Amino acid sequence: MKRFILPLLLSAFLLQTAAAQNIKFVEYDLPNGLKVLLHEDHSTPIVAVSVMYHVGSKNEKPKRSGFAHFFEHLLFEGSENIKRGEFDDYINNAGGMNNANTWYDRTYYYEVLPSNQLALGLWLESERMLHAKVENAGIETQRQVVKEERRQRVDNQPYGRLLEETLKRVFTTHPYKSSVIGSMEDLDAAVEMDYKQFYQDFYRPDNAILLMQVERLLQESGIAGARAFEDKKTDRPLFQRHSARQKRDPA
Ligand SMILES: [Zn+2]
Questions:
Q1: What is the pLDDT of residue 103?
Q2: Is the pLDDT of residue 251 over 60?
Q3: Is residue 180 part of a domain?
Q4: How far, in Å, from the CA of 187 to the mean position of ligand 1?
């Protein structure tokens, strides 16, 4: 009898996992290249707005490690229409929460808000994508913040550099050889122009996916809201994504 228990448990687990991952969504592309995924969930009166950028530490140039993670911080610094330090205030005042994270291949920003605040979430993310202020005041503030984060999470943690030292030895040319948080040396060396260029290259509609989870049947408003992202000029070449695409499909 025992020999049937394990397969039975395994099947139940797999069935449950398969059911849990059956998320229905609508997918469409805006003319500017922004991909939109829209999911309806009626279980709670909240909306989630998030943007995933196809940029991570793999896109960093030599001697400029830590850029993608740095931008995770920098893009909370304000924009043409949001004053420095006020990004989070919009979320807090609306009763929401937000955060972001960075990895080797992607950077992810999100807001969770009451369901009547979808437009606010879209506006905040469109400001981040289209009008972020990439300038010295914010850069110098975040440079110190990121360096302190490195001290706390990596340099002053027992075995904190294990992953960094391992990947450095595993990969010699592959971009995964650099740590996501970057080296102190590179964090100190980067200047405003480097950051402006990185923003122009990667934080743009044709290098991002907008994901929305809405409570009610808001497909129309989701489509309308996503148009907030449409005014970005996309005539600049996007070298990383285009070269990757060419490699996959030489025809
Ligand atoms: Zn951080």
A1: 96
A2: no
A3: yes
A4: 13
Condensed to tens digits (0 to 9), the pLDDT of residues 181-191 reads: 999 999 999 89
pLDDT for position 248: 34
Report yes or no on 11 lying in a domain.
no
Domain that holds residue 214: 25-228
Centroid of ligand 1 to alpha carbon of 248 (angstroms)? 32
Query: Cα torsion at 74, 78, 84, 90 (round to 10°)?
Result: -120
Q: Taking 60 as the threshold, does the pLDDT of residue 39 lie above it?
A: yes
The verdict on whether 72 is a catalytic residue reads yes
79 DSSP 8-state letter: B
Token digits of residue 153: 């999470």
- Residue among 27, 40, 60, 72 flagged as catalytic: 72
Would 138 be classed as within a structural domain? yes
The count of C-alpha atoms lying within 13 angstroms of the C-alpha of 136, restricted to the half-sphere facing its C-beta, is 1
Say how many Å lie between the CA of residue 181 and the centre of ligand 1: 7
CA of 26 to the centre of ligand 1 (A): 32
